[in-house]
Write a structure and sequence with these properties.
The complex is a heterodimer of chains A (about 70) and B (about 160). Chain A is mainly α. Chain A is about 50% helix and about 0% strand. The N and C termini of chain A lie far apart (about 50 Å). Chain B has one domain: Glutaredoxin (3-Layer(aba) Sandwich), CATH 3.40.30.10. With about 160 residues, chain B is an alpha/beta fold. Classes of the chains: A mainly alpha (about 70), B alpha/beta (about 160). The interface between A and B is medium-sized, with 20 and 25 residues.
Chain lengths: ~70, ~160
């Protein structure tokens, strides 16, 4: 019983940390903000392509310094 | 079992981001212009402080910076101080940007090369600002850039804290 409790608590603890481990935090996006990271050299198009990329990849916050979107706008 | 639970709760508390009402995170960071000089958070006690985490590559940070310069000019630095923590990979980028918007260096700017402050505050967005009262407690949190409306509301809160 004790082992199961420890395992459960450990799993809960690890899952709580996982978001921070896999996600690029907003303050770590200096390289993403560089022009060469843009999907297209045309800024208007890059914005649209970036939006589509976010929806398609269901990724969060990969293309800006703020959080990700749901693709609903 | 009780011990285990308390250790678990303690570990959760350790990972929790500081919120309104909590003590502000203590720090000691070098000045961006003179990196041999550093500023300790304790030296800010007794003042209302707006701690802002920013980077030159962040468009929102660029937009709100002139508003901060204006805001600081409206208060004496002995009672209210804007403290900027720059998190650029290279301090030069931050200094270059500041030379355009704050040539007189009216804003206290620190350089956080390790990004320790945004990590400690677990900032969910950039820029992030924290209003800290005279006792070192967090009064308000602003995620994202502040516009003119946001700055006027902030001004009211600062005046209230200063008893004006």
């Amino acid at each position: 019983m004790k082992k199961v409790t420890i395992l459960l608590l450990f799993a809960l603890f690890i899952s709580a940390c996982s978001d921070k481990l896999v996600r690029v935090m907003p303050y770590e996006k200096e390289y993403f903000a560089q022009d060469k990271m843009s999907l297209s050299p045309i800024s208007e198009r890059a914005e649209q392509e970036g939006h589509i990329f976010l929806i398609r990849e269901a990724s969060a916050g990969g293309e800006s310094s703020f959080q990700g979107g749901c693709g609903c706008r | 079992m009780k011990k285990l639970l308390s250790i678990f709760l303690l570990s959760i508390a350790l990972f929790a981001a500081p919120r309104v009402g909590d003590d502000a995170v203590k720090f000691e960071l070098p000045d961006i212009y003179a990196q041999n000089k550093s500023l300790k958070s304790e030296s800010l006690h007794g003042k209302v402080v707006l701690l802002n985490m920013w980077a030159s590559w962040c468009s929102g940070c660029q937009e709100e910076m002139p508003l901060f310069v204006q805001l600081q000019s409206e208060f004496s630095r002995s009672e209210f101080e804007i403290v900027l923590a720059n998190i650029d990979n290279e301090a030069k980028n931050g200094i270059d940007f500041l030379s355009k918007v704050d040539a007189k260096r009216s804003l206290k700017t620190l350089y956080d090369s390790q990004k320790s402050l945004p990590k400690a505050y677990q900032c969910p967005g950039m820029p992030s600002s924290f209003l800290i009262n005279q006792n070192g407690k967090i009064v308000d949190v602003y995620i994202g850039s502040l516009d003119t409306d946001g700055i006027s509301k902030l001004k009211q809160t600062i005046k209230k804290l200063l008893g004006k």
